[in-house]
Design brief:
The complex is a heterodimer of chains A (434) and B (318). By secondary structure, chain A is of the alpha/beta class. Chain A has 15 helices and 18 strands. Chain A is globular, with a radius of gyration of 20 Å. Chain B has a five-stranded parallel β-sheet with strand order 7-6-5-8-9. Classes of the chains: A alpha/beta (434), B alpha/beta (318).
């Protein structure tokens, strides 16, 4: 089910094609044949092809989100692979990487395989499963990385929990080398964070909420970077949120450590003051928490100087009932798939802070490289995944219009300019803006 | 001069104007007379329903509100979380909707988490009075403290107020900071570094770990309960060492102005933050006046929020 019919030839005509991976930026036609890019050139003559008119639009490699929670199997009341892959498509993403904190946890090839098969059967955005680092995400015994990779896993992570035991993390980084799998870390020293509900600082002091200091993250990243060096491994740092964390990744990259890093739109565009401004709205509760303005600024600098490789949403759907509780009891997390691209464009590209080509990189080739994924570029012969974007289209974010099953966003009512109008996967248009 | 409050709710002092604080204190002064009458009851809130919703244990605040409600002739309903549907896992939103169905005029709420009164206020037509939300605010406490200070000191301008103790976990201190700084008093906070939350100076106060420095020249010394049940315990090794460093004794009180008053929101830990000698010193300690003023302030708040009848208690508020 889902998706639009596959046509054997598709011509995306007249858009401005921006593909940082190949250095292309100019008006061109894109011809797709049998699900693959056949030709990208000006004035392609393909009379029998179905045509997507992209005049005035931007054409990008299909966007990839390294960090989503699709909640299936186990928490289908929050989100499902179907609703999540639909939300991804509507947000301009042709592929997402699904974190393993499902029930059962994706710590075994049977679960990995099931997720991958289910996503293929649905036929919307591609879903790349991420396997758990440790069995049950308990931080004790390693999962079977090799078998999970054969079943489709593209990385391993215990996202939501830090692998607190240094020896276990070291072994994970070493063992993952056998399969060239990145180990994605949720960096949080819980002895320091206490799972505090918000960022520690003047705002948490004023509001009296439990809080976690930024050091709970940066200390964990410092350890993981050291272990990555020791193990000669490959580390990916999830949702970097503090200035010190950015600096640590920057220094490590300069030393030649194999590390990549992602940031989320909410850490870029919101600060802990939002908890106060929203009068304790649980939509602002997320982990890592919204930080200070100085931290948010450091993330933008990390984007500009290349320290940050990808923008990832950490799309974390929750049922409305779960968020309709007091702030301390509410679960962490917010949805992001249907707002990320528009917010990034509005806040950083339309304002002239980040060039459009850099934005495309952060949403395509950057994440593709971080997890060694196919795609992320418009190369002849490769799978025809692309995102058509209207930089002038604007809307006011309305959670009621989401394809996601969840509505937990702090961006409701925010005006955005720049929207995905069409998402194509393997030559098939899986989303068109109504 | 204003005669009403801006909001249907009293969620904190942060959002009150100095004029609104003044209105509440003036109204409270005229309410105080009711407590001194032989028949302590006026029909000001007759036919109005107040729900006291206490998710957290409280004795004096709950009694104080209940007394205020009785003296104003409101119908009140008490709801304690223990043994209630909340303990059975009812969501806060459902609790709010069920309450709304009973059409109360006011809800007095205490909860262990900051922001719960705000959540109810957003979802209910009834006015909401915050009777303490976690470590966030406890507005009626700050108002009764202000009333007590005003009775003793006349005005707040340039008054030096030292607030000492577990600043990190105290809702009383946050409401007092808002209240006292709005009234132009000078506030110095004092706590061991482990009980001083980061960035508190941004609220317009000074902060020190030196008890003697905080006390020197103070007009008002407000001692806070060291809240062992909120994790205050891990912040210092023993009550004995705490008292040695931060306990209010006669010798230390001598550093303050000779006419300095000593306050405490209660319940006191004698021998931890305050010596019995000071607690019981009728010349200096105003702790029992605070309790009496608490009823008057709560009457004023309930009356102003519920829009009670001003002719109902004989003498109109000044």
């Amino acid at each position: 089910m889902g998706g639009y019919p596959l046509v054997s030839r598709l011509l995306v005509r007249g858009g401005r094609v921006i593909d940082p991976a190949t250095g292309r930026d100019g008006v061109a036609d894109v011809l797709v044949e049998e699900g693959r890019f056949a030709s990208i050139a000006r004035g392609i003559d393909a009379r029998d092809a179905a045509v997507l008119d992209a005049a005035g639009m931007l054409v990008f490699p299909g966007f990839i989100d390294l960090h989503v929670h699709l909640r299936e199997p186990g928490f289908e009341y929050k989100e499902s692979i179907l609703s999540g892959a639909g939300a991804a498509a509507a947000g301009g993403f042709s592929a997402v990487c699904a974190m393993p904190n499902t029930d059962p946890v994706n710590d075994h090839r049977t679960v990995t395989r099931w997720i991958a098969d289910r996503a293929r059967e649905i036929g919307l955005a591609r879903v790349y499963p991420i396997g758990a680092i440790t069995k049950g995400m308990r931080g004790e015994e390693l999962s079977e990385f090799g078998e999970m990779k054969e079943a489709g896993a593209v990385a391993v992570s215990d996202d939501g929990r830090w692998v607190a035991n240094g020896s276990v993390m070291r072994r994970a980084l070493e063992y993952a080398r056998l399969f060239d799998l990145p180990v994605a870390t949720h960096a949080e020293d819980e002895t320091l964070s206490g799972r505090g509900a918000m960022n520690e600082g003047a705002v948490s002091t004023r509001l009296g909420l439990s809080a976690q200091p930024p050091e709970a993250e940066s200390i964990a990243i410092a350890r993981d970077l050291a272990l990555c060096e020791l193990a000669h491994g490959r580390l990916h740092v999830c949702h970097v949120s503090t200035a010190r964390s950015v600096a640590l990744v920057r220094e490590a990259k300069a030393r030649g450590v194999r590390v990549t890093a992602e940031v989320t739109p909410h850490h870029l565009f919101l600060t802990d003051e939002e908890v106060s401004l929203s009068a304790f709205s649980t939509a602002t509760k997320v982990n890592p928490p919204l930080r200070s303005p100085r931290d948010a600024e450091a993330l933008v600098e990390g984007i500009l100087d290349g320290t940050i490789d990808a923008v990832a949403t950490d799309h974390a759907p929750h049922h409305a009932d779960e968020k309709a509780v007091d702030y301390e009891s509410a679960p962490f997390g917010m949805v992001g798939l249907e707002t990320a691209v528009a917010l990034f464009h509005t806040r950083l590209v339309a304002t002239g802070r980040v060039p459009i080509a850099r934005m495309v990189e952060l949403f395509s080739s950057g994440p593709a490289r971080a997890f060694s994924l196919p795609g992320g570029r418009l190369a002849e012969g490769s799978d025809a995944d692309l995102t058509i974007f209207d930089p002038a289209a604007s809307t006011v974010i309305d959670p009621r219009s989401f394809r996601s099953r969840a509505r937990n966003t702090p961006f409701a009512g925010v005006k955005v300019t720049g929207l995905a109008v069409s998402t194509v996967v393997g030559g098939r248009e899986i989303y068109r803006r109504p | 001069m204003i005669t009403t409050l801006q909001s249907k709710d009293l969620l904190g002092i942060e959002t009150l104007s100095p004029e609104e604080i003044g209105l509440i204190l003036d109204t409270a002064e005229s309410m105080r007379a009711i407590g001194q009458r032989e028949i302590k009851k006026v029909p000001a809130l007759r036919g109005r329903m107040v729900v006291n919703l206490f998710f957290e244990a409280s004795t004096r605040t709950r009694f104080s509100f209940e007394t205020a409600e009785k003296w104003l002739s409101a119908d009140s309903l008490n709801f304690a979380a223990k043994g209630s549907s909340v303990e059975k896992g009812e969501s806060l939103l459902d609790t709010a909707r069920n309450l709304q169905a009973m059409a109360p005029d006011l809800i007095v709420i205490r909860h262990g988490t900051p922001g719960v009164p705000h959540f109810l206020a957003r979802n209910l037509k009834a006015g909401v009075v915050n009777a303490g939300d976690g470590a966030h605010e406890h507005p009626t406490q700050a108002l009764l403290d202000a009333m007590t200070i005003r009775q003793r000191k006349g005005s707040f301008e340039n008054l030096k107020v030292a607030i000492v103790g577990d600043i990190a976990h105290s809702r009383v201190v946050r409401s007092n900071i808002w209240c006292l700084t709005k009234l132009k008093a000078k506030v110095t906070l004092c706590a061991p570094p482990t009980l001083m939350p980061p960035g508190i100076e941004e609220m317009g106060v000074s902060a020190t770990s030196d008890f003697e420095e905080a006390l020197s020249g103070a007009d008002v010394v407000m001692m806070l309960r060291v809240q062992i049940e909120r994790g205050g315990k891990t912040a210092f090794p023993s009550s004995r060492e705490y008292f040695a460093r931060y306990g209010l004794t006669r010798g230390r009180l001598d550093l303050a102005r000779p006419d300095a008053i000593v306050m405490h929101p209660g319940p006191m830990n004698r021998g931890v933050e305050i010596s019995s000698e000071i607690a019981d010193d009728a010349d200096r300690s105003v702790i029992l006046s605070q309790v009496a003023n608490g009823v008057a302030v709560r009457m004023a708040v309930l009356y102003l929020l519920a829009g009670g009848n001003p002719q109902a208690w004989g003498d109109t508020p000044s």
